[in-house]
Design goal:
heterodimer; A: 304 residues; mainly alpha; 13 helices; 70% helix; B: 212 residues; globular
Chain lengths: 304, 212
């Protein structure tokens, strides 16, 4: 295994909490506020980590497992993405499916934990989260199908590595649509505006936040970290699709990825400050549009 | 300029999708206006030489489909003071899916069709898809204004199909078609206005209540 793979993975793990911080800062600046420091998520994580966890007497072991599984699955999924632009730590034929369902597994455990508390609010949040996930999944898979068609390579490491840079010149419209679709999926999966609002603290309007109300201390820190890691993962998929970095040297490729992630976070912040949250019954429509874009990309690749 | 043509055709499809997926009446009209502008640019990109015929066609299309008709439709909704929402009979998400299926079907069908010219491969499928989407909008939206929009999209599809044979179609025929569309939309606009005055709504389903 090359050192660059390990370094890039470590870089992703370190940089992940920065992304929500940058997005929040961008949003604050654009709406005329000063905003919390960019490094605030790290401080939050440290503070939560020092605290003790409180467990309700009604919860079972599932509730305690969920945060660990969330971080573990996200970290495992990260090892499937070619972060240094050339190869992933793990790569096998069809690891797209593993990537999608590892993240789904983390979410599934989180939903179970939410239901485990027996709180009606958390149950509602869980149901909403699953609804959003169900609509985001086809878009993600159609984007993956498009990447496979464009590169003829069945693994994430293979497709996002070398072949994609050769595929871009011949299929600009299709891949551009796939990129946009991936960005919309990122907004949904990362629980950002227009699908969910990370800044809201009203139970009736929250989706992801309401699901994790009962977690505290280190458990909550893990959930926050796992969620940030997920956002970073989708961000690196997006950067990997838009800027194939196979031709760059490893340090440069990692630097480009880090820069790209920062740009993605800023873009998320801009979207959050210019858009209002969608009404809940409009969310499926938003994600169907993402699927439609990806499907159009697939059709174009099949024809072209 | 095959690249530019491809891009323009793609944008045409995307504007049709916007009409399928958007909830606002004015956004639909804006999308159709953009589609009209794109259609006007297409002949210039397809035939870069640019005879007077092509320029006339492009100019006429931009003027009529990109400027006059949308402005007229906007006037119609303002005068009739309709509600701004689309209120479709088939949901937006489902409409978008139908749109994707239409595009896929159009590409599949045009592979089977014995088309003489291969170099304009995308023109025919996009034309077919636009016709299908136009027909879909025409049949599933109950607002009379949106039915006019559907008719315009349908006509845009026909126009796209016609672009494969621009050199062989006399200019006069095209001008005639454009004029027909203009008159048709004009009459529809006036009908829309009168439906609204008669029923206080633009819901075309109410027309079934008409009696002598």
């Amino acid at each position: 295994m090359k050192w660059s793979v390990v370094v890039s993975l470590a870089m992703l793990f370190v940089i992940a909490p920065l992304l929500p911080g940058i997005a929040a800062k961008t949003r604050a600046r654009l709406t005329g506020r000063r905003g919390a420091p960019v490094l605030q998520p790290y401080r939050d994580l440290a503070r939560l980590w020092r605290k003790g966890a409180v467990y309700s007497r009604d919860t079972s072991r599932v509730f305690r497992f969920a945060p660990i599984v969330l971080v573990a699955t996200a970290a495992f999924a990260a090892s499937l993405v070619p972060l240094d632009g050339q190869r992933a730590m793990l790569s096998f034929s069809g690891d797209f499916v593993a990537f999608a369902y590892l993240l789904a597994l983390g979410r599934f455990l989180l939903v179970l934990a939410a239901l485990d508390t027996g709180s009606s609010f958390e149950g509602m949040g869980a149901s909403r989260e699953v609804t959003v996930a169900a609509f985001a999944e086809p878009a993600l898979f159609l984007a993956f199908v498009a990447l496979v068609l464009a590169t003829g390579n069945l693994s994430l490491g293979g497709a996002l590595g070398g072949p994609l840079s050769q595929a871009w010149p011949g299929a600009v419209p299709a891949l551009a649509m796939v990129t946009v679709s991936l960005f919309l999926v990122l907004l949904a999966e990362g629980s950002r505006v227009p699908v969910d609002d990370p800044a809201t603290h009203l139970e009736l309007t929250m989706i992801h936040e309401v699901m994790v109300l009962d977690h505290s201390g280190p458990d909550f820190a893990m959930i926050l970290y796992g969620h940030a890691l997920k956002l970073a993962l989708f961000g690196s998929l997006l950067v990997g699709t838009l800027i194939p970095r196979a031709a760059l040297t490893a340090p440069l490729a990692i630097a480009v990825l880090a820069l790209g992630l920062v740009v993605v976070a800023v873009a998320v912040g801009i979207v959050e400050s210019v858009m209002a949250r969608l009404r809940l019954n409009r969310v499926p429509q938003f994600l169907t549009a993402a699927s439609a874009l990806a499907a159009l990309g697939v059709i174009l690749l099949l024809v072209g | 300029m095959p690249r530019v043509v491809e891009l323009l055709l793609l944008l045409v499809i995307l504007t049709s999708f916007i009409v399928l997926g958007t909830t606002r009446l004015s956004a639909c009209i804006r999308a159709v206006a953009v589609q009209g502008l794109l259609l006007g640019l297409l002949p210039l990109a397809l035939y870069p030489g640019g005879s007077l015929h092509i320029w006339g066609l492009a100019g006429g299309t931009v003027l009529l489909k990109g400027v006059i008709l949308p402005r007229f439709l906007r006037w119609a909704i303002r005068e009739a003071a309709v509600r701004r929402e689309v209120e479709p009979r088939v949901g937006f998400a489902l409409s978008l899916l139908v749109g994707v299926v239409a595009v896929a079907a159009a590409f599949a069908i045009s592979r089977i069709l014995p088309l003489p010219e291969r170099e304009r491969a995308m023109l025919v499928p996009v034309a077919l898809a636009t016709v299908i989407i136009g027909l879909f909008v025409l049949t599933t939206r109950s607002k009379a204004v949106l039915q006019v929009v559907g008719y315009l999209i349908l006509e845009n599809g026909v126009y796209l199909f016609g672009l494969t044979h621009v050199e062989r179609v006399p200019f006069l025929v095209e001008v005639g078609v454009l004029l027909d569309v203009f008159v048709a939309v004009f009459i529809m606009g006036i009908v829309v206005f009168h439906i609204n005055r008669e029923f206080d709504s633009l819901d075309s389903t109410r027309l079934t209540e008409l009696t002598d």
